[in-house]
Design brief:
alpha/beta; OB fold (Dihydrolipoamide Acetyltransferase, E2P); 7-stranded mixed β-sheet; globular
Length: 468
């Protein structure tokens, strides 16, 4: 087998990274945009020691699970890797992804439960983050997702997995940017104004928070306060005025927009949001309801993108916590303390720990408005907090980012937990790695329950219960 060789193969299964798996002379070959049981013609693009990569040339015999793509841009955009696969079969594939990770990476002999489907499979995504650029000749503003394995922007005009109003807001920004002399960002030259468009929506209120990430430093906000300004400072102040006027225009045009924020990020980085966010029109949050609690979600607040599916997860965790009588609960990597607040009425007390200060401030508002008095909030790193205390909790809830937990954080959680750890994960591989570590420390994995949070993608949310 050599690069550019062509083969006819049958796709055997689906990988945890969104590729189909076939075999040629016993060697694993990963193929994009295929479904298990497809019989396809492929071309080899890369060969490694243990596997090869191939591109799809032709579908000879389609899998019985193939469907019309949910979007005409499905292949080009690359966001909905499963957008051409029957939804029920998507759930089976996601179960297999989790099972493979738990068995092969974690080395744990447990049967993963069937994936709980999302209540909505279209228009479910309540958060979008579009990078922005500008064409060289026509100077058109482009906003959308990156093409797979590149930084070339697909100019998205319609996306079926997000509310249609998001398409309208983005189109307004594209069309009106010229009127305010706002340019798109060029990441190669680090020039241009608008880097990203971030929209946070609410299933509950139907309102949206728009954040424009601009290639600027928040310090320019203070320049107008000086009695004498340099030519450069005057120019920067004028530049900041155009952002604010543009933000106000967006707010005025859409009744659905609750507020518009400016986020300032002038660093050469792939990180989307800078450290400073300023609300310049309307309010700086949208409200989302989970079970019987209403939460405030800001521009840089972590919150699940699929509220209806998230509600299933929160109910599942709450039911598990309620099995103990008046338990004390640790809510680590808490975000806006959603888990802590949701379980507060079945717990004796809850401690929610989150390093993002803005998230804790939003959680404080929710506690006050809901008259919740048994939740303590700490704007602190989880490990540092746990090392500073001696008490133990009956149950600990861990909801870390995709990279999972550090061994130190797992060690500290074990020291401070009496009965059970509930681990909520968006990455089966790091979940399996962390479960392996916990079992090596004497813990037992009691159950693994996946939820479909990210319909039409290979991503899956999983809740694992671990007894100590």
């Amino acid at each position: 087998m050599q690069v550019n060789d062509e083969f006819e193969v049958k796709v055997e299964k689906y990988s945890g990274t969104g590729n189909g798996i076939a075999r040629i002379d016993g060697q694993v070959v990963f193929v994009d945009n295929v479904c298990p049981e497809d019989f396809v013609q492929v071309k080899i693009t890369r060969i490694n020691k243990s596997y090869a990569n191939a591109t799809l040339l032709k579908i000879i015999t389609p899998s019985p699970y193939r469907r019309e793509p949910i979007c005409p841009m499905q292949k080009v955009c690359g966001s909905c890797q499963m957008g051409f696969i029957d939804y029920k079969y998507q759930l089976e594939l996601k179960k297999q992804i989790v099972q493979d990770a738990i068995t092969k990476i974690g080395g744990i002999d447990i049967e993963v439960k069937d994936v709980i489907a999302s209540p909505k499979i279209l228009n479910y995504r309540q958060k979008i983050q579009y990078p922005v650029s500008q064409t060289k000749n026509s100077k058109r503003i482009l906003a959308g997702y990156y093409k797979p394995q590149s930084h070339d922007i697909v100019n998205i005009k319609y996306c079926p997995i997000q509310p249609s109003i998001c398409d309208k807001i983005v189109e307004f920004i594209r069309e009106k940017a010229f009127e305010f002399k706002i340019s798109g960002y060029n990441e190669k030259t680090h020039k241009g104004d608008l880097r990203h468009i971030v929209i946070r929506g609410s299933e509950y209120s139907g309102k949206f928070l728009v954040t424009l990430v601009v290639n600027n430093n928040c310090k320019v906000l203070c320049l107008k306060r000086h009695s004498e300004q340099s030519e450069e400072s005057v120019d920067k102040s004028a530049q900041n005025d155009k952002y604010k006027r543009f933000s106000q225009a967006i707010f005025n045009h859409f009744d659905e927009v609750a507020g518009v924020c400016l986020n300032y990020n002038d660093k050469k980085t792939n990180v989307i949001l800078g450290e400073k966010t300023e609300c310049v029109a309307g309010c700086d949050y949208v409200e989302e309801k989970i079970l019987d609690k209403v939460f405030k979600i800001g521009a840089d607040t972590f919150f699940q993108i699929n509220p209806k599916s998230a509600e299933n997860i929160f109910k599942y965790v709450k039911d598990e916590v309620s099995k103990l009588e008046n338990p004390t609960v640790l809510d680590a990597y808490a975000g806006i303390a959603t888990f802590g607040i949701v379980v507060s009425n079945v717990a004796k007390s809850v401690v929610s720990v989150e390093s993002n200060k803005n998230s804790i401030e939003k959680a404080e508002e929710v506690l006050k408005e809901n008259n919740i008095e048994n939740v303590e909030l700490f704007a602190q790193d989880t490990v540092k907090y746990l090392k500073s205390i001696k008490k133990k909790f009956d149950i600990s809830i861990l909801d870390p980012p995709r990279k999972g937990c550090t061994q130190e954080s797992l060690d500290e959680t074990l020291k401070h937990t009496k009965n059970e750890i509930i681990y909520v994960s968006c990455n089966p591989a790091t979940l399996a790695r962390d479960l392996k570590y916990l079992t090596e420390k004497g813990c037992k994995v009691e159950s693994v329950q996946p939820f479909d949070m990210f319909c039409h993608t290979y991503h899956v949310e999983t809740v694992a219960r671990i007894s100590i």
